[in-house]
Amino acid sequence: MKKLILALLLVPSFGYSQPLKIRKNQSGMFSMGIRSTVSTFNGGDFGNTGFGVGGQYRLQVSNYVNTEWFADYITSNIGDYAKRTDYHIGASVMNYFTKKPSPFFKPYFVVGYCFDWTNLVEINDPTNSALRRSSAVQAGGGFHLNLSERLDLSVVAQYMIHLGNDVHAHRHSDGTVEFDHEEGAGLEGHLLFHVGINYKIADLW
After folding, report:
1. Are 169 and 119 in contact (CB under 8 A)?
2. Nearest to 81 by CA among 179, 154, 147
3. Which of 19, 53, 97, 197 has the smallest count of CB within 10 Å of its CB?
């Protein structure tokens, strides 16, 4: 993670220090980046906070609309008896409040969809596990802080609702751990916080 951040920060020193060429407007802007993630309310419990890393690329389609294509890897503990691993692969649409080319502070709404893969494993008995494959929708808000013409720091908070079956871990009074599958969509999901750094590579059109 540290090496990736350092590489992004050093990019301007290796051939990309020239000003960003903008053809007409912000439409067609292509960028790539990495991010860290905090996931709260896993399984409906604020104490089961998870941490992860991910990456994304963006392709802006107009002055007001940007798209983001992402992948995240998140791990968390369920009490002291189980571990949870989440993989997210999906896309989001960001709607900006302003079309100015390079304001320092740029807020936006975000909505998205992703495919979700979750694995729950008992800590004391790794053979006892449960797997769920599903999809999810998410919505929230965030902002970019443009550190330079090419580099921005992005902060976003969004809630993700899983569609389809859900899975929970329970520890009984005798110490045994059981994983329960629940059918149907519910409001339980993740409250996700992302902090990322992105580098604008080129204006494609």
Report:
1. no
2. 179
3. 19
